[in-house]
Specification:
3 domains; 156 residues; OB fold (Dihydrolipoamide Acetyltransferase, E2P); alpha+beta; two-stranded antiparallel sheet; OB_2TM
Length: 156
Amino acid sequence: MRSVRRGVAIAACCTLLLVLLVGYGTLTPDPATGRFPSNGAVAAGTVDTGDRVVVAGTARGDTTEGTVVDLDGGPRVVVRGLDAAPGADVWLYGIYRDGSIRNVRAIVRAPWEITYLYAVSLLGGLLTLGRVVRTWRVDTDRWQVVPRDRGEESDG
């Protein structure tokens, strides 16, 4: 009886998760909810002067008008009010005006920082997984995750 209730609860949670995923996927972008035109809209030229945009790209250097940024999969734009070294990855929120963007907020990172972030996350995940596998096991009789006995831990 207990396993039936557990199965029903798991099925209900999975169904709820599926409904939420599908429901979220049917939503359309709405600037009022914090979604703004991005690289694709800037590349397509569908952004009007004064629109708020969120774009990402690579800084290429400074000019007298601002910092030149190659948008990922898009055109090259000039960003005013941005301090980024050439080659740095840039994510910024700004206001589009006549082919350039006025920076409001930006995140500037060296390209190696993303690799470092993923490498450290992978290492942490592997250490955690190793620790869980060494100290816990699945009891197939009751379908529960239970701590390993001390004798089992030293055998493995």
